[in-house]
Amino acid sequence: MLIGGPLEFNPNLLTSEPLPDISQQMGYDEKNIYWTRSGRSAISLVLQTFKEELSEGWLLLPDYQCWAVNSVFSSVKTKNINVTRKLILEDNALENYLKDPELKGVFLIDYFGLSNIESDISLIKEKRPDILIFVDAAQAFLSIVMNSYKYASADAIISSPRKFLPIPDGGLAIFPNLKIESLGKATDNVAQQQNALFLSASSMRTARRSFQDDDPLIKDFESVYLKNFQEHNELFTNEVNPISVFSFEVIKRIDLHALAKHRVKNFNFLKDSLISKNLDIIEPIFCGDTSPALVFPVRIKERKRDTLRAYLQSKGIYCPVHWPIPESKELNLGIESKVLSGEILGFPIDQSCNASTMSILLEEIHNFLKLP
Q: What one-character DSSP code corresponds to residue 214?
């Protein structure tokens, strides 16, 4: 049994007919959408596009962020703003930062595709209509599909379809009010190498599903495809590169709206189940929200996050953490960001999940809580 983890490519996708133009599914003119190699590549494109404006001052970033891609901001001056335990910016702090005439842009993050940052956008528009607003919606790709006007008042929206779809690569930069030169589609050697590593790892993981849980081959088999997934991820860089032809052709054959609805159904099932059970150490972060989120994020109390995660992984259930903090960054972060980094766990709700698999997840959580 495998629940969660990397999404696996199904070759049957390539035998299906392409759906209506993908820009129609996204709700934007194709001239405003730029498909990149990754979310990181999309951020680079945005920073490059607004390089002149940003060079005259600095960019404000939340202090709770994905540190694996933080190096993409090395070309601009930045400052961090603290977030609260509910993953929202501290109001007073934002207002104070907006008073600085050297502030040229704010980088907002839609955490897990569940954040309500419209109030932040409204405040920025009211107080500083002259500065740029970028929205990191890497974890909100399908939320944009369901609501194309979400964050349309921003100067740029960044997302990462590869986090939601069984594709080797894929990022997205949307400029609601700006058209720039098309990037085309990639066929370079790196793209081909990434495709090969992803497809090899994906097919091995699919084959792994047929193994019995006590099969002695599992450990060696997993070590091979996990190594391939790792090597595949290590090929992503900060460079502005287009999406591969292969990944784009796969996206064109996926009904994104149907996928979004499936995730919403999974999200609601897990939300209702966790709230009704009122488990002591598990605190859902976004109780009142519904979305085709990346994962169902919770805080695991009593310093049991890593222990619970390891236990679930031993049962074939893979839950990501968001995000480990490098030692070099800890001194500049607020207390809540440090706590969040050690407590947040994402329960899987992707398209391979359903009520049955999520019931297994809940059962294993109960089993864990019974342990001495």
A: T
Cβ burial 313-349 (10 Å sphere, 16+ → b, else e): eebbbebbebbebeeeeeeebbebbeebbebbbbbbb
Kindly state the helix (H) or strand (E) to which residue 327 belongs, with its residue range.
none
More confident residue, 217 or 295: 295
* pLDDT beyond 70 at 186: no
Question: Contact at 8 Å (CB) between 146 and 124?
Answer: no
Overall average pLDDT of the 293-310 stretch: 95
CA-to-CA separations, 29 to 17, 34, 162, 248, 346, in angstroms, rounded:
22, 11, 21, 17, 33
Contacts of 291 (CB under 8 A, 6+ apart): 112, 113, 114, 140, 143, 264, 267
Number of helical (H) and strand (E) elements in the chain, helices listed first: 13, 12
User: What CA–CA distance (Å, rounded) separates 50 from 63?
Assistant: 22
CB 224 within 8 A of CB 203: no
Q: How far is CA 200 from CA 204, 210, 229, in A?
A: 6, 17, 9
Which residue is associated with the tokens 């990037």? 183
- What the block records as the tokens of 298 is 């919770």
Which residues, 6+ apart, have CB-to-CB distance to 355 below 8 Å? 269
* Burial group, residue 245, by CB count within 10 angstroms (0-12, 13-18, 19+): middle
| Interval 315-364: pLDDT, tens | 999 999 989 888 878 767 889 999 999 999 999 999 999 999 999 999 99
Q: What is the pairing mode between strands 3-4 and 317-318?
A: parallel
187-205: pLDDT as tens digits: 788 889 999 999 999 999 9
Among 313, 290, 286, CA closest to 299? 286
Nearest-10 crossing angle of helices 91-98, 118-127: 30
State the Cα–Cα distance between residues 98 and 105, nearest whole angstrom: 10
Q: What angle do CA 128, 134, 138 make, to 5 degrees?
A: 155
**CA pair distance 98, 79, nearest whole angstrom:** 12
CA distance 112 to 289: 11
